[in-house]
Sequence to fold (195 residues):
Amino acid sequence: RSDELDELDRWAASSDSLLVIEAIGGAGKSALAWHWMTTRAKFAGTLWYSFYEGGADMAVFVACALAYTTGRPLKELRGRHVSDLAPDLLLELKRCPYLLVLDGLERVLVAYNRLDASQARDDQVESESEHRACIKPQDADLLYRLVAAAPSKILVTSRLMPSALTNTAHQPLPGVHHLNLPGMNSDDAMRMMRD
Fold:
């Protein structure tokens, strides 16, 4: 994935605050994000948040991110609404250059709001605009606000591009970079097999 790693480097140096890596399940979104974060990313601090964990949602993410960036106790922030915590988080993200990784964001989208979300095949999931919307409106509002988090960067992995990050023509909003992750090129695949 050398080409994609280089694209992540270019994004980190750009003015775009948010990048979405979109691909089908198993394509390597999380592996790419993790490898880049641990080997190439240079920030004041990094936070990896996985929506694949039980009980994970945007309210817990905001509480964790705010606890991380401020040093406040997590128990003081948990249980509060996203809209209550979002302004403080945005202030911290604008104060210091952090990298926040939101892994598996599709879990907060309508298309994956189902009991068997972890086993759902991508070809069984609706991908129209209304299915790419956030289940909770306050989650969509937070995603929209994170686009203005500079100098911090927000890296999202998702099976679907969230509609909160696109305009009415389904194009990424200004400040949002979209990487549709293709299959591996043959040289990278051979190198991975040898390794």
In short: DSSP finds seven helices and five strands in the chain. The longest strand covers residues 45-50. The mean pLDDT is 90. Helices lie at 2-13, 29-39, 58-70, 74-77, 82-95, 137-146, 186-194.
